Amino acid sequence: MRLRGARGFPLPAPSRYRGLRPRTPGAGAELAVRRGRPGVAGPPVRWNPRAAEPHIDAAGEGAGRGAARLIRRHDPSGIPQPPRRGHLPAVAERRTKPGKGAAERVGPCHAVRMDRQRRSHLAHAAHPIAAPIADDSVARLLDRAVADEADRALDLGCGGGEWLRRLLVRYPWMRAEGVDIHTAALEQAREGAEESEVADRLILHEMDAAVFASAHRFDVVLSVGAAHAFGGLLPTLAAARELLTPDGHVLVGDGFWEREPDAAALSALGATWDDYADLATTVDRVVADGWTPVYGHVSTAGEWDDYEWSWTGSLSRWALDHREEPDALDAYKAAAEHRSQWLSGYRGTLGFVTLVLRRSP
């Protein structure tokens, strides 16, 4: 018998992971945008953007304030991870594991060949927050999550680092760390931090967010649109709990069904109807897991439309303006396919909720 949630939607099976092959254990890296950050294992490597390969820094010192230092290290677990479930079509495509970027959706593969990380970078040119959340909503969520006494923030699945960049600009006393598996996304995060003059307060780790560990706790742990990296919303919160200070805040965002999905929506998303629940059931599960919502934001139809039009429009604009580029046709086709899937498939069906949580007593 299939169990159903509060509004009749079926309850997801927590142990079922979909859409992606198991992660292959291997070498990861920590990209530290801070002078003098000690390595975890192996010699530190100073990043030289003019060289084809990084060079060993025998003294273990970084290249100076605001410069990036790359420290290679092996996956501490060494254990293959289970396949992750499907995830949001464009909200989390920058973070798909393994490879938080594969296609914009899980399901039938795109016919296009353009590098997925490059496509994501181009598609988010006009909307760097990779979720259907407007700038004022982002600022309000950060204000609710960052307490006056907060000192450290962590983003699990940080992608291009836009949440952390805005946090560090808004709260100049904060320090932050970001974790993502994609080198290109972390390079984008580093560049953004340097442009905003906050690079000396940011550390970036190139590794699987699901196995990240730290010797210290964080006052704010963020993970917006990256639940696929952990196998779902509750496993994401379990990971955040291990890294959070006792009175800290978690800022987490994930999808839910605005209405029961039809065949067109499920096909467009490459999903099954138990990948998500309705909003009430989603929040009930979070509360039952030992969390208290102290604020929340449900993305509006306008925020969704702005995000999707920005995503497809930016990619289309680039393709039209760079027709001589080898990837131009692939980018154009990807934007057209995504736009059709959104408008004819999941628009008005897939929702997105961002919660600010604290531990329940």
TrEMBL record:
CDD domains registered for this protein in UniProt: AdoMet_MTases
Region Disordered: which residues?
1-47
Entries under InterPro entries matching the protein? Methyltransf_25, SAM-dependent_MTases_sf
List the GO molecular function terms: methyltransferase activity
Q: Tell me which domain of life the UniProt entry assigns to the organism this sequence originates from.
A: Bacteria
Sequence ranges assigned to domain Methyltransferase in this UniProt record: 154-248
Q: What is this protein called?
A: Methyltransferase domain-containing protein
Q: What is the lineage of its organism?
A: Bacteria, Bacillati, Actinomycetota, Actinomycetes, Kitasatosporales
